[in-house]
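User: For a benchmark we're assembling, each entry needs the component sequences followed by a predicted structure for the full assembly. Here are entry 17's components. Please fill in the structure.
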Amino acid sequence: DSGVTQTPKHLITATGQRVTLRCSPRSGDLSVYWYQQSLDQGLQFLIQYYNGEERAKGNILERFSAQQFPDLHSELNLSSLELGDSALYFCASSGQRGYSPLHFGNGTRLTVT
Amino acid sequence: DAKTTQPNSMESNEEEPVHLPCNHSTISGTDYIHWYRQLPSQGPEYVIHGLTSNVNNRMASLAIAEDRKSSTLILHRATLRDAAVYYCILRANSGGSNYKLTFGKGTLLTVNP
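Assistant: Structure for entry 17:
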């Protein structure tokens, strides 16, 4: 058990809809990362937050947004969903040092029909 | 991010040692070498990391070349549960709080009974 909790585990929705994925980091971790994994793209970094502030941005679409709340949990919002957004979405958290490992949750599997 | 090169796949027999190589010729002096693995249908899992010296933990050993341009992850006795994709990643430690990991394609390890 990594200590990172992601909800929901599965999500099925239709094109054009909006969904919110939730992540609770390990106790004490201030950094939260979001990754997308699809069959043809591998693990793609989307965005990182550190203590409520955005720290790094990867290949995140404009239709996607995220935030980290004062209690350090994070939410990833996906809107105007397309079939190609179907993927596994992973959240990870880490401590404050550059060598601190990332601890990943078990992911949310999003299916857009 | 500095790039790593790993074989696409490797095969091993159960209870034999496995040496997973990684080349990172453009590594900078402050980059940590991290290894993660991803079992089927799970999030990536931290295995080990190092900077200059060889490292051991309960999961594996990490052997780092003297010039730091390559490293080897060593599983001392492979089990069927070690079958996974193994990722070698360089993680910058240049200060600040941007410590994202950039995943490549990794090495798919198959363990034969």
